[in-house]
Amino acid sequence: MVDLPFTFTIPMPQVVPSRVDNHIERRLSALRGQFFDQETYHKMLSVEDQLIYEVYEIKRPEVVGELLMGISIVHPGKVGREFFMTKGHFHSVLETSEVYYCLRGEGYMVMETPEGDTSVEALSPGKVLYVPPCWAHRSVCTSRQEDLVTFFAYPANAGHDYGTIERQGFRKLVLDGENGPEIVDNPRCQ
Ligand code: PAN
Ligand code: ZN
Fold first, then answer.
1. Cβ of residue 96 lying under 6 Å from some atom of ligand 1
2. Which CATH fold topology does 22-189 show?
3. Of 66, 92, 116, 174, which sits most exposed with the smallest number of CB within 10 A?
4. Whose CA is nearest to atom 10 of ligand 1?
5. pLDDT tens-place string over residues 86-127
6. Segments of 5-61 assigned E as strands
7. Ligand 2 center to residue 154 CA distance, Å?
8. How far is the CA of 88 from the centre of ligand 1 (A)?
């Protein structure tokens, strides 16, 4: 039998979709090795394993032709000068793309290719971001108080390769500077 079309809503300002199959919570401990200021990271972790971001997924079969959709919520905060962020990943099927639509908050999508190209795009409500095939991506929340909320859709067979980023991080970091967020080179990638 064919699947039937369906709808769901993303009520504002709560943004939890009316249809959710999976709720993922990622805490500070899941970002081990990713923040540039490791001393502050370990100090913070010894006090509390804070909630950094959440994902609400609408499940579909993980096959070619299907799309996976959901809502990603990165909470405000910093480790030292570095803003809270997602782990970030390449897709396991590298040549797959993704669309993000920003619903709330301010932030950036940090992206790079295996060849070393980099791109950092600002996100604010109403902005649509297209992540082309082969670009790793990480969302960063730079709001002081508000969550960075994005809707995403990507091919259901894409899968996630976290290992490549876990090994040396992204080439660009988003730090809190005197005049707002600063994008700097990651010293680990030099
Ligand atoms: C998103 C991300 C979500 C969480 O659904 O999975 O924002 O980020 P991490 O997967 O890096 O923890 C996506 O890009 N899916 O492909
Ligand atoms: Zn992705």
1. no
2. Jelly Rolls (2.60.120)
3. 116
4. 88
5. 999 999 999 999 999 999 999 999 999 999 999 999 999 999
6. 22-27, 51-58
7. 7
8. 6
